[in-house]
Amino acid sequence: MTGQxxxxxxxEVSDLKKEASDLQHExxxxxAKLGExxxxxxxxxxxxxxxxxxxxxxxxxxxxxxxxxDRIDGEGAVILLQTPEEPWKVLEQTQPLKGNExxxxxxxxxxxxxxxxxxxxxxxxxxxxxxxxxxxxxxxHWRSLLAVPINPKGSIQxxxxxxxxxxxxxxxxxxxxxxxIATLAGGTMESAxxxxxxxxxxQGILVSLxxxxxxxxxxxxxxxxxxxxxxxxxxxxxNLPADYLEKVRTSGLLHDIxxxxxxxxxxxxxxxxxxxxxxxxxxxxxxxxxxxxxIRQFHGDILDGVLYHHERVDxxxxxxxxSGENIPFMGRLLAVADGFDAMISDRPYRPGKTxxxxxxxxxxxxxxxxxxxxxxxxxxxxxxxxxxxxxxINL
Length: 395
Fold this sequence. Notes:
- This protein has 395 residues and is α+β, with helices and mostly antiparallel strands.
- It is 54% helix and 9% strand.
- It is built from 13 helices and 7 strands.
- The strands form 2 sheets. A 5-stranded antiparallel β-sheet has the order 2-1-7-6-3. A two-stranded antiparallel ribbon has the order 4-5.
- α1 runs antiparallel to α2 (57-71).
């Protein structure tokens, strides 16, 4: 091989080595990016799984803060939220600022409003004591800050703040990661907020319906709400699941809606009802059932309470004359609460019983009039509890 050929060969080898080295660096970079992408994908999958079906704003906030704390090693983190009904408040925080004054004060609210209007991450590194950003004084011990908006176009809005990163400065990658997490959590918070607002409207309509029914007679004013309060207390005392408690609340408030079809003269009669009048009164469970049966979501437990709350376990109740466990559970549960409130309430033809007298009657009627287990549990629960007052009932 000539000298020229040898030099050419060496140059080609050198070029090949350089190309191989460059390719190796590219592969390494791609592998690193792939690893980062996989880590982000795993994070988003994990976060989305934890948020699936979550209709709790506070729980979504805790999830968001936990993820921020796990991914960005800062000294502290906080979520500030506002809604159309509520001003700015601290939802969740870690490593709270001394006394929490700054976070709950006007400076934090002003910062939050500016972050929302920016609608992009804010990164401030190398902060000094007395630092100010856009006219907002920052806490003196903040050396660095990362802030991202949460749901800036939604009904519920907020910001996620992380301060004093322990290793190095906050980076654009940190901002991108927290923004993605905040977007996922913000969507869940928005759904939870709208669900809560719809639920409050729904409960308000139920209470209004119950109040309208009870208002037909001054003797039954507040009865549906008190019955619901006692039924909920019993259900909670028996550790019934949360979704069943919601059904108890709805069924309790609506259990007497059929009295809309009962003449006022019967409801207000100052003496005992005649057999004919009592037959009219006994129709109110079925009237209520017919009024509500078109609402598909009420089928099952809720309508069971409306239709069967006057049944007796000995089969002598109405409207169907069912006995024992043939009476649906909701009917048996409301029967105890309804019976107790009816006994302690004044009626035009008799004064109300004392709490002790009413509980003794329920204890005596356990297993004949009322479901034995439910009746005795109610007596046990109410032994040391005061009677419900209308202004204390929160439904």
